Every structure is written in structure tokens, then in C-alpha cells.
Structure to design on (399 residues):
């Protein structure tokens, strides 16, 4: 890197990773739309009547981000929209965590996992990536090695995202098992206090 | 290609391979948890006990049909307690479907919950559960002392409780039906019998 400029490889990797992240998220939402609208109600931040239109709007925003990140003139706008959306999701999750409402489907797709601070941190990291994506890269030619770096960079970041999510899911299992162990041995942990933690 | 480029390409390949290994390991841990973590459906002591007659409830389904729980009935009954917001309940819906197919004419599956009718109607449509009888009764949930979901109760033809517990997986649901078939209340009971007063953890 020379001066204050950002090497184009970073910009392309950031944009490419966001495209993959949002494509995955959008696929989940579209494939089970009615459930996604229902999940939105679980967050209890919106009037129920708005859940359906907001669900459509979120999916449209994600589609716009995916297209915008690929089409060069729209890249800056799309990256900023991505940052806004990620912050919005993180705030929605954080509000519910603070309200103690963690046993709702996070809407992350899959079988469903509860909310956790991990999801907030994940979004914060993705916001950082979304702030790299709109940067103006310095003008350097991209050779074969640069393109190899782009492909492996995006692939590595997506694998990290997938791995971290799997670990989070495992952690939900562990938390559930702990809770049940307490339930199983009420004599050892106080009677009829399923919610107790130690 | 100079040696630095070769090294970068090689290292990139190694990083990706390692990440794949990490992902596979994490997935395997997840599968292990899913399969073995809670042993059998977890029991609570409160509410009607295994082997006792269930109190009789005369309820109305969301479709407006009368339905009795706990009354003598030609088939055994699985009452599945769920809520509209519990992620595990959603995961078990396909399991309920396949259970119904496997058990066929031996088992009726009833979904139970409480709360506002409109909310549950919407949930039922959203998760295409309209082919299951769906009852709303806070009495039913209170009688069985349900504080965790999803919870299942198995009743035999005479309305006697044959199994009940918190269910988080297909294995746990099946274990409740095994309990009905084998007369063994739960794996916890079986362990208790095996290990004396020691508890399972």
C-alpha cells in the first residue's frame, strides 16, 4: 500500500465478501418468506401489521445491495446501505438481548438459533468490511496473483463466517444442555427453579 | 512467477484447506450435540405422573371442531406443546410429520398452545400446520406444568399418561413413544434404576 490509498484487492475482497454474505441471507429469507415475516414479529419492534411489508422491504434492500456491489457506479451507495442494514440488524438484536428476549428465532436461517451477543459482534465486523468496500482504490494494475488473492480472500472470509456461525450454533446447544441439566437435577440446584443459573 | 508469489499461492491454498477442516470439525461437534447431548426426553416431576390418568379436557380446535384430550380414544395421542416464537418447535415440525407417517393409524398428534387465536391462526398458516388439530388452552398447559417448550405428552388409548417431557430433537420425541411401547418411563428412570441413587448428568 502506498500513501493513504487502499489497494484494489482489499476493496474487491470486501465487496465480494458482502455480496456472498447478503446472497446467503437473502436466499434464507426468500426460501421461507412467511417464516421470515413471522420471525420479524418475534423481535417485537414493529406493529404486527407492518411485519409483512417490512419483510419485503428488507429483502428488496438486500437484493439492491447485492446488485449495487457488483455494478461499479453503485458500489459506494450499496456498501453504505449494507452498513446501515447491518447496524439496524445489530441494534434490533441488541435491544432484544437487553430486554431478555433471547429465546426467539434470530432469523439467520437454518433450523433456528436464539439471539446472542455473538451476532452483534459478527455484524460489527461485517460493518467494518462494509466500510472498506466503498473506498476508492489506488490505480494499480491487477495481475494474476492479485486475482488469486481476491478469490482466496473471499473464500477464506466466507469460510470464517460459516465456521463462526456453526460454533455459535454449537454454543446454543451447550447452553440448552446446561439449562436442562439443571432441570434434570432439581434437588441439586434448588427446586422448581428452571431458570436458575450458576 | 517469483518465489514470493508461489509462496502466497501455496499459503492461500493451505489457509482455505485449514478453514475447511475447522468448519467440518465445528459441524461434527454440532451433529454430536444434536444426537447425544440430552439423553432422552427430559422429564419434569410436576403435573400428572406417568401411569396416572390424564385429567380430561374438552377443547375446541382452531377449526372449530370439538376435541377431547385424556378421554378414552381408539388411538394413542401425542400432545405437542409449542409456541409461535420457539425456534426448536419449528425444527420439530417436520419430525412430527414423519412421525405421523411412521405411526400411521396408531397415533394422533395434537398441537397445543395458549394465547391469542389470531396470532396462532397466522402462525399455523405461516408454518403450514393446518393439517394438524391445533388447540389453545392455558388449562392444559397449566395442568401439565409446562414451563419449557417444546414439550410433549403421550397418552395411551385409555387416557393414561405414558410419557412426557421436554423434547429438543427427533430422538427425544421417539424416546417418548418408546417409553409408551416398552413401559420404561424415561431413560433417566432407567439410569436411576441402573446406578442406584446416582443422578445422570
Amino acid at each position: 500500500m502506498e500513501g493513504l490509498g487502499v489497494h484494489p484487492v482489499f476493496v474487491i475482497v470486501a465487496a465480494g465478501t458482502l455480496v456472498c454474505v447478503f446472497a446467503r441471507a437473502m436466499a434464507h429469507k426468500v426460501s421461507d418468506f412467511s417464516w421470515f415475516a413471522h420471525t420479524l414479529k418475534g423481535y417485537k419492534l414493529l406493529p404486527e401489521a407492518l411485519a409483512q411489508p417490512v419483510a419485503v422491504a428488507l429483502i428488496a434492500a438486500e437484493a439492491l445491495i447485492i446488485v449495487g456491489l457488483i455494478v461499479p457506479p453503485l458500489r459506494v451507495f450499496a456498501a453504505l446501505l449494507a452498513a446501515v442494514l447491518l447496524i439496524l440488524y445489530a441494534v434490533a438484536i441488541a435491544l432484544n438481548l437487553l430486554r431478555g428476549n433471547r429465546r426467539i428465532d434470530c432469523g439467520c436461517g437454518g433450523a433456528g438459533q436464539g439471539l446472542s451477543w455473538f451476532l452483534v459482534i459478527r455484524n460489527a465486523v461485517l460493518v467494518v468490511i462494509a466500510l472498506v468496500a466503498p473506498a476508492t482504490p489506488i490505480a494499480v494494475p491487477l495481475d494474476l496473483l492479485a486475482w488469486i488473492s481476491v478469490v482466496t480472500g473471499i473464500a477464506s472470509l466466507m469460510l470464517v463466517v460459516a465456521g463462526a456461525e456453526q460454533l455459535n450454533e454449537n454454543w446454543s446447544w451447550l447452553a440448552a444442555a446446561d439449562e436442562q441439566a439443571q432441570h434434570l437435577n432439581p434437588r441439586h440446584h434448588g427446586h422448581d427453579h428452571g431458570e436458575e443459573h450458576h | 512467477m517469483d518465489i514470493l508469489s508461489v509462496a502466497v499461492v501455496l499459503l492461500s491454498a493451505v489457509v482455505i484447506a485449514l478453514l475447511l477442516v475447522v468448519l467440518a470439525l465445528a459441524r461434527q461437534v454440532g451433529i454430536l450435540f444434536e444426537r447425544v447431548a440430552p439423553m432422552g426426553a427430559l422429564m419434569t416431576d410436576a403435573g400428572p405422573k406417568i401411569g396416572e390418568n390424564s385429567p380430561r379436557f374438552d377443547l375446541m380446535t382452531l377449526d372449530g371442531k370439538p376435541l377431547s384430550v385424556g378421554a378414552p380414544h381408539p388411538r394413542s395421542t401425542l400432545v405437542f406443546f409449542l409456541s409461535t416464537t420457539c425456534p426448536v418447535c419449528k425444527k420439530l415440525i417436520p419430525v412430527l410429520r414423519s412421525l405421523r407417517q411412521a405411526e400411521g393409524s396408531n397415533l394422533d398428534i395434537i398441537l397445543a398452545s395458549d394465547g391469542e387465536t389470531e396470532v396462532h391462526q397466522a402462525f399455523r398458516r405461516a408454518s403450514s400446520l393446518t393439517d394438524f388439530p391445533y388447540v389453545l388452552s392455558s388449562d392444559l398447559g397449566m395442568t401439565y406444568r409446562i414451563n419449557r417448550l417444546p414439550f410433549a405428552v403421550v397418552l395411551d388409548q385409555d387416557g393414561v399418561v405414558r410419557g412426557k417431557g421436554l423434547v429438543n430433537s427427533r430422538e427425544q420425541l421417539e424416546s417418548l413413544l418408546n417409553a409408551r411401547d416398552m413401559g420404561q418411563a424415561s431413560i433417566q428412570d432407567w439410569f436411576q434404576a441402573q446406578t442406584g441413587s446416582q443422578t445422570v448428568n
